[in-house]
Amino acid sequence: MSIQEQIKEVVTTHRVVLFMKGSKQFPQCGFSARAVQILQAAGCEDFVTVNVLENDEVRQGIKEYSDWPTIPQLYIGGEFIGGSDIMMEMFEAGELQEALKA
């Protein structure tokens, strides 16, 4: 199975997936920590995290999969949402909460 197929399987098997540096319990960069805080503030506790620092193939592969150059990356219902800045904008507008409810 290619790295792209593995990534697709993760984002389509789980409803909410955050590709990040570190884990939800121990984020290893400020943007990843912020992304976790935004999801929790939006009332989402049951999200899956993928630590890109554990696998360089995943770290590079996710950027190609989404055509997005930075980590963290949020997926809801198999759809790419964005990074921590987009998550914050959506949260402030109430759009992230709506996407998580859908």
Structural write-up:
- With 102 residues, the protein is an alpha+beta fold.
- The protein has a single domain (3-101), classed as Glutaredoxin.
- Helices cover 50% and strands 17% of the residues.
- The chain contains 5 helices and 4 strands.
- It has helices at residues 3-13, 30-41, 56-66, 84-93, 95-101, and strands at 16-20, 48-51, 73-76, 79-82.
- A 4-stranded mixed beta sheet has the order 2-1-3-4, with helices on both faces.
- A hairpin with a 2-residue loop joins strand 3 and strand 4.
- Helix 1 (3-13) packs across helix 3 (56-66) and helix 2 runs parallel beside helix 4 (84-93).
- The longest helix is centred in the middle third of the chain and has 12 residues, at 30-41.
- It is globular.
- The protein starts with a helix and ends with a helix.
What kind of oligomer do you see?
Answer: single chain
- CATH architectural designation: 3-Layer(aba) Sandwich
Give the N-to-C terminal Cα separation.
30 Å
CATH superfamily: Glutaredoxin
User: Quick one: overall form?
Assistant: globular
Overall radius of gyration: 12 Å
Q: Give me the count of strands.
A: 4
Largest sheet: 4 strands, mixed
Q: Can you list the strand order of the major beta sheet? A: 2-1-3-4
Using the coordinates above, name the CATH class.
Answer: Alpha Beta
Overall pLDDT metric: 97
Helix content: 40-55%
